[in-house]
Specification:
Largest sheet of chain A: 5 strands, parallel
Largest interface: A-B, 26 and 26 residues
Number of strands of chain A: 9
Strand order of the largest sheet of chain A: 1-9-6-7-8
Order of helices and strands of chain A: HHEHEHEHEHEHEHEHHEHHHEH
CATH topology of the largest domain in chain A: Rossmann fold
Radius of gyration of chain A: 18 Å
Oligomer: homodimer
Strand content of chain A: 5-15%
Number of helices of chain A: 14
Structural class of chain A: alpha/beta
Distance between the termini of chain A: 47 Å
Amino acid sequence: MKSVITFEDVVAAAARIAPFCHRTPVMTSGTLDALSGARLFFKPENLQRTGSFKCRGASSAVSVLAAAGARAVATHSAGNHGAALAYAARAHGLACHVVVPATAPRVKKDAIEGYGARLVLCEPTLAARETTCAAVCAETGATLVPPYDHPDIMAGQGTVALELLQDAPKLDALVIPVGGGGLCAGACVAARALSPGVRLFGAEPALADDARRSLAAGSIIPSTYPDTVADGLRTSLGELTFPVLRTHLEDILTVDEAGILEAMESIYTRLKLVVEPSGAVGLAVLFAHRERFAGLRVGVVLSGGNVDPSRLGEFFSARRAS
Amino acid sequence: MKSVITFEDVVAAAARIAPFCHRTPVMTSGTLDALSGARLFFKPENLQRTGSFKCRGASSAVSVLAAAGARAVATHSAGNHGAALAYAARAHGLACHVVVPATAPRVKKDAIEGYGARLVLCEPTLAARETTCAAVCAETGATLVPPYDHPDIMAGQGTVALELLQDAPKLDALVIPVGGGGLCAGACVAARALSPGVRLFGAEPALADDARRSLAAGSIIPSTYPDTVADGLRTSLGELTFPVLRTHLEDILTVDEAGILEAMESIYTRLKLVVEPSGAVGLAVLFAHRERFAGLRVGVVLSGGNVDPSRLGEFFSARRAS
């Protein structure tokens, strides 16, 4: 089967997004190495424009659409893709409509509006999001840019791994959070091409382990949108992302909610970085599965940092109470 | 009067500390530029080893002492200098004793012990700190390394400005938090030499404006250790730092407690960086005195990020209640 995206697609996306996205640094911490028993190379996509890796995929897709003459884009998104699409649309001079569950964090809604997009609230179900978004597209003539199940999105997200493996060569393994699988699929394609022997792992909250179960079952098991603190990882895999993950991932490892908050706190206190819970799941998996990574050089994607500061006390006191 | 330190001292310190300290990046944010009305270039010393710029001064001083044959060092410190000295001592194979007010944040005490130093608790007054530290030195033969009023410390801290002006040239102004004045004095000497016309400003909490009042009075007015949230900026100026500040600073600008927390939250949400309240005072001053910096290219030192995660809820909900 021909792959949905190739390494060349990721390289082309890297060139398209360069004017619109940061090349984030690679960060290390002796303390976190000691705590994990591995040698960790963090890719802090919380420092990316719009506060998450989603800027890459959105910029990649919008750039293609703008070149083809599109005038408006729309999407449904728990937040980070929405903000990223709003940013990319404005950067390319396109209008943007973003359908957001009414329950999404205030900080994410503010970001979307701050980038000049129109916000459309809906019920927090996939059905409501899709229906509302289809209506918006029909009404405005906007092109739908889905959050992850699209080749240009996947190729854009893959640039995370492209940069990481260029800046931190000779990695033994890569740990990538899995929500819809766009980041993970793109990263797998880029990493496998640059470093054929690299071991590739997905990372999921145990509460939202639909991707792990999907890989085990050999077909997509839809997410039930569980109430994990990692709100960016609640979505189901897509028809395009699933086969890529199935081809490349050695395993999908999971971690419980307390482990996610512990890793989030470690990132705050050791790396001095603000990450959202979803962004901490990679490190959380490393802490929870130390034996799998002992002594290895491991790349860890910190996927985003859009967390409402007023919730930080709650997250860290929840951790202390647990 | 001969200056306490020269530009050459800062350059020599930069060479000494290179193996032990990070060269921190320069970060920018379009949103914070829009909010401040200036063009901001942040030097995120929260990403420095030990979580603050204090690593530079401590590494500079310990390096000189180690070369001279010292076997142990001691200090009294609200926390960041203590952690930095512990780190630098261990890196150079020296023993380290740190006198800390019993009221210092837990995260700072943990860091000091984590770097292998012996922690000695005392009352939270300058007198108690000095007395206890003198006793420790007498008892152990350790050399006192003061937190700021020492040429090697000041030269080490000055490397912050050296790097910032190398990486972000043509700055119109620099805003530097002032506690004891070590960072500010070192930065002034480096900045004035590299960029003679640069305008230099100190930044203080209005509650702890002893440096502003000292400059106005022409002599050191001791701090009364006020209860500002910016716990790193409660100390008095030193005999060595004061004349340097008096020579170079155009002004010391102050900001109220709510302004400090607002800036801290902006740094969390926009730069995705964990800063302690003291580390946000530079940006807070820029927000509070927009008219002084309109349209200028301004370097802003984010001095540190050692904040107890369990206090974040308190800081950010305090801001909302205010």
